Amino acid sequence: MAEPLRVLRKEWVFAYLLLTPLFVLLSVFAFIPALHTFWSSLFSKGTARRPAQFVGMDNYDVMLADPTFWLVLKNNLWYAAIVIPVSMALALLMALWANRAMSMRAWVRCAYFTPTMLPMIAAANLWLFFYTPDLGLLDQIAKLFGAGATNWLGQPQTALGAVMVVTIWKEAGFFMIFYLAALQTIPPELRDAARLEGATRWQYGRRVLLPLLAPTTLFILINALINSVKLVDHLFILTKGGPNNASKLVLYWIWETAFAYMDTPSAAVLTVVLLLGLGAVAIFQFRYAERRVHYQ
Predict the structure, then answer these.
(1) Is the pTM of this model over 0.85?
(2) Which domain of life is it from (predicted)?
(3) What are the distances in angstroms from CA 251 to CA 64, 70, 146, 197?
């Protein structure tokens, strides 16, 4: 009895030694900063004459009473609700097209993936030229049909939508790569068998293709959700959250609060709320979604 226990203890010690570097990295770059952020959110904003004081949950009450918080949260929810499904649907359509046997298929795949290779700052500056009132490409095309100039980034009705278009254009090609890789692992015999059974293209896609792509779809969905709350760079170039906070998103507001207004406690409060939201997404992924999409 003692010998098996000794072997088991050695295996546990060896396992913990293998996990130690990962635990150290997560502690330094994730756990400790998260705890420090939560602790900072419990203090008031300090100045040179008046140091920060412990205020408990008062900063959270101020955040909930701030109408800007609810506006930014609504913007981010709309942003995620539109960008995620549209970019994923476009990625799947592009992958289906790029997976077909056709001439110049490599060039088609490269064209779809090219926007992904551009840095977000470069992509934002490119679309800034497209959106320029009266001189931009979009208004030049609109003039051919008799339409007037539109300030796409300067009015609340179109600013957030214009930012969404840039993100969809940038991310669809990246998600396409994962769908394309998944499509190439599906045996062609399944399509032949479906045809022999008299299944239409729509029935094959709904009954066979989409279920087999479910794990890839879940992976892309989680990445798209994370991307929807970490947008800063091209928002900074295009609108800076304006006009009148119409295109401001959560992470940009955190950056603005911390580094433009130098209000570290308020930024910490927003960061804690963001981490809780991402944590809820992670719990949903591991406890519910993965059980439904992985087939053994």
Answers:
(1) yes
(2) Bacteria
(3) 17, 14, 39, 51
